[in-house]
Known about the structure:
mainly alpha; two-stranded parallel ribbon; 6 helices
Amino acid sequence: MVVAALPVIDIAPLLDAAGDAEVVAGAIDAACREVGFFRVVGHGVEPARLAELDSLARAFFARPEDEKATIAMERGGPAWRGWFPLDGELTSGVPDHKEGVYFGTELGPEHPAVRVGRPLHGANLFPDEPAGLGPAVLGWMEAMTRLGGVLLRAIAAALRLDADGSSGR
């Protein structure tokens, strides 16, 4: 089986109001139909941002377990946020041989979903050290959410849908 090269698509025109979004949408459409995947460049997310997040995450996981446990998932309530130790999470009843930490969209106690106790909605648990981890995580999530919106609008255009997904054309 011959595997096609992964298409690389420059999405910078999608970020510029004067850019040619139709050309980019066409390239995304072709990549999805012909290969099924694509890689984006020109997205405007600084590589240093990911490097900082990676460095801070490594610093967190290198800390002693008792320090990481200050943000243990048991403290996160229905928001399902926080740290879990090695073998502390199950998949199909079997301990996963991994350690991790869950973060999500930051929602305060006044948010309607938090007030009614909706699972997976709420505040994050961030450690005291490394101090910059919380802002780095939230900044990364914001950048990826923004980028995801740009890509979804381009995919909608490729499918000849309005930005909201309706068939307006």
